[in-house]
Amino acid sequence: MADEIDDPGVDFHGGMGDDPDQLDGEEVMEDDPEVKEIMGDEVDDAADEQRTNIRGSGNAPKSVGSDQEEAIVQCDTSAGPITMHFYRSWSPHGYDRATTLFEKGYFDHSHFFRVVEHFLVQFGIGYTTDKELKAFSQSTIPDDPKRPEMLPFKEGMMSFAGSGPNSRSSQMFIAYDRAGGLGQSPWETPFGKVTSGLENVKNFYKGYGDMPPWGKGPQQGPIHNRGASYIESDFPLLDKFETCSVQRMNQSGAGVIKDVNVIKQSGAEVIKDANVVKNVAAEIKKANVVNKAETKEEVPSFPFTTLLILSSIVLSVLLGLGYMRNKKKKKYNKTT
User: Fold this and answer.
1) What is the rounded distance in angstroms from the CA atom of residue 99 to the CA atom of residue 82?
2) Rounded distance, CA 125 to CA 138, Å?
3) CA dist list (Å): 191 to 14, 145, 276, 322
4) Of residues 259 and 114, which shows the higher confidence score?
5) How far is CA 197 from CA 180, 202, 267, in A?
6) What b/e string do you get for 9-33 counting C-beta neighbours within 10 Å, with b at 16 or more?
């Protein structure tokens, strides 16, 4: 039956506007064509009613990031590490929601609750007790424009699951190798892909199959109602996330140029400051040269003049003494 399923669905029940006590085993997938065929118009009527009061926290804030932003998301899982690459240019609203949920740790320790061989892996019902984060995860975002050039879905591509126009919230899926029929619904605009660890994704436990009536896997209502205990007690072999880390990257050329200009401006300021220092140093050096010149002209001139005068006096004294001595000597000779 897996090949006949062409829509990963989101169950409106289970903490999203309904009484959780009435959900065990009673939820239906309104957007699955097989369910509609079985249940008829009752499903459509119920879905319309649910859409009027779903996501009590209202719509999510508008997207504000750069269209060129990308994110690398690295996660440890029970089957091994995986790396995902998200592109805002593919799906701005989807990118913002997915990246933020991973950053906030919403998916940490949550299970891959729907693993259908050759079709898809679905996840996105977190176990957080943070009321604000839970409300954020349940709020809906607008659909992004379709990307027909990216169809058919290739193995490893990622998109949101949904239940109608503008219904994306927190549930997502990773496509397997025969998911080529995906991408036609309004909510199935891809936002990223698995770039490393795809073998680990392909090794996720598939023994339970799809959810009823197509398989024996878990139902979404009890996950919302009972949390991780439901999976661990009834479906203990399902794989799950451990923890994830997110690295955002801005690939915008304008952003790069802006950064370069900042560096250039900073460099110009440094050069300017350096020139000021050089100019000050030059002035100091010039002043020192002037002071030395003045010292050479003024300081040495005083001792030299004084020495010359003193020398003249000494010479005059010596000459005088010599004259007086000669005169006495002549006078003595005449006497004798």
Assistant:
1) 15
2) 10
3) 26, 11, 52, 118
4) 114
5) 21, 9, 43
6) bbbbbbbbbbeeeebeeebbbbbbe
| CA pair distance 179, 156, nearest whole angstrom | 10
**For helices 253-298 and 301-335, angle between their N-to-C axes, nearest 10 degrees:** 20
pLDDT in tens, 105-115: 999 999 999 99
Q: What are the helix (H) ranges across the chain?
A: 33-39, 41-53, 92-103, 131-138, 198-202, 220-226, 228-234, 253-298, 301-335
Asked if 124 and 107 touch (Cβ cutoff 8 Å), the reply is: yes
Which residue in the block uniquely carries the two structure tokens 């009527």? 45
Is the separation of the CB atoms in 34 and 5 below 8 Å? Answer: yes
State the pLDDT at residue 279: 61
How many residues are there in the chain?
336
Q: How many CA atoms lie within 13 A of 204 on its CB side?
A: 31
* Pairwise CA distance, residues 11 & 163, whole Å: 8
Closest residue by Cα to residue 69 from 40, 50, 90, 49: 90
Least confident of 64-73, 99-108, 190-199, 248-257: 248-257
Q: What number is the average pLDDT over the span 154-158?
A: 98
3-state secondary structure 106-167: CCCCCECCEEECCCEEEECCCCCCCHHHHHHHHCCECCCCCCHHHCCCCCCEEEECECCCCC
State the Cα–Cα distance between residues 70 and 249, nearest whole angstrom: 5
Contact 74, 85 (CB under 8 A): no
